[in-house]
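TASK: fixed-backbone design
INPUT:
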């Protein structure tokens, strides 16, 4: 089945100076909410509860991956953690899957207390992605949502929330990437703004998407980003003198090509809410 691959995750402070200048990366623990045990799987329909494994994030440490779908009648769509050709741990979501970055994984149980709560203000998140398995119409996504603060299990029973209330609960959402070989969107959403403000390239046939670059630059065989091959992503969250978020800055680059593509999402009315969400700590999600 179609899949994408993520690897090489790292976190670093924006600009020079001691790491303490950026403040604490992982926010203080919130009041504990008891884990939510999943119903017993229905024979023949639900997958056994297993934890995919851990990945490494340079500048942070080990990250546990928690998949959605435990206890679902439809079963869990696999999210794999595997060793790539160079021995680096790769995160491989499948079509229809979703998984959360966490401090630990307890197979068959969900707790919002386990999800990472990262304050990425003044920081840059880097990773490498391979979209060669994501054709037109696919949406490979990596984003941040306020799951750690969500005490409602939601319709998905795993405390998931986002700006579109996919599982019935709304919260702030920062879409670092929603992409395939032919399109890339980076979008910020306050908790009640399903459309948000973003940039990138792609969309047609009834949807006039952003046009920060074109298919000559980003596509299979593209001049700047050839999406048949892996490329690097860097997303930064600069702040003003008061520590308030002012923008999401995304940069795509690829070895052997000298024309990186950039997006600068700023001027969004919901920035104060997103700044507060980051300050409280947001959970990375892949789907």
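OUTPUT:
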């Amino acid at each position: 089945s179609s899949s994408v691959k993520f690897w090489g995750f790292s976190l670093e402070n924006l600009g020079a100076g001691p790491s303490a200048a950026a403040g604490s990366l992982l926010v203080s623990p919130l009041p504990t909410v008891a884990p939510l045990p999943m119903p017993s799987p229905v024979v023949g329909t639900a997958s056994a509860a297993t934890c995919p494994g851990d990945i490494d994030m340079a500048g942070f440490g080990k990250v546990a991956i928690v998949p959605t779908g435990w206890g679902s009648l439809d079963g869990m769509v696999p999210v794999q953690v595997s060793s790539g050709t160079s021995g680096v741990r790769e995160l491989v979501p499948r079509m229809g899957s979703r998984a959360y970055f966490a401090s630990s994984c307890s197979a068959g149980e969900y707790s919002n207390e386990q999800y990472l709560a990262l304050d990425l203000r003044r920081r840059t998140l880097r990773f490498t992605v391979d979209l060669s398995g994501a054709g037109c119409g696919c949406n490979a996504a990596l984003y941040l949502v306020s799951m750690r603060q969500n005490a409602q299990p939601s319709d998905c029973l795993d405390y998931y929330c986002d700006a579109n209330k996919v599982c019935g609960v709304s919260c702030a959402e920062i879409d670092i990437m929603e992409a395939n070989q032919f399109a890339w969107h980076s979008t910020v959403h306050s908790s009640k703004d399903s459309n948000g403000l973003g940039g990138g390239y792609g969309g047609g046939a009834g949807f006039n998407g952003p046009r920060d670059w074109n298919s000559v630059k980003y596509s299979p065989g593209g001049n700047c980003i050839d999406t048949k091959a892996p490329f690097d992503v860097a997303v930064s969250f600069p702040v003003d003198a008061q520590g308030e978020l002012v923008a999401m800055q995304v940069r795509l680059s690829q070895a052997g090509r000298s024309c990186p593509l950039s997006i600068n999402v700023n001027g969004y009315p919901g920035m104060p809410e997103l700044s507060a969400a980051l300050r409280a700590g947001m959970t990375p999600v892949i789907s």
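COMMENT: The CA atoms of residues 249 and 264 lie 5 Å apart.
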